[in-house]
Amino acid sequence: MPMTRTTVALSAAVTALLGAQAQAQTWSLATAAAPYKGTTVSAIFLDRPGYKAAAQLIPQFEKETGIKIKFEVVPYESTNQRYVLDFTSGGGADLVLSDVVWIGQFADAGWMVPLDKFTKDPKLADPALNLKGFFPVLLNSFGTWNGKVYGLPFDNYSGLMYYNKCTLKAAGFSGPPKTWDELLKVYGPKLTGNGKYAFALQSRRGETQSADSFMRTLWLAGGSLIDAKTFQPNLSSAASQKGLKFRQDLMKYMPPGVVDQDHNEVVNAFNQGTVPMITEWSAFYPTITDPKQSKIGPGCLGVTTEPLGSAGLKPALGGFSLGVNSNSDAKKQAAAYLFIQWITSEKNAKAYVQAGGVSGRQAVYKDPAIRSKYLYVDPMVKSWSAGTAVPNFRPRFAEWPQISQIVAENGTKIMLGQLSTAVGAKVIDDQVKAILEKAGYYSGKKAKLQ
Question: Where along the sequence do coiled-coil regions lie (predicted)?
Answer without folding.
Answer: none
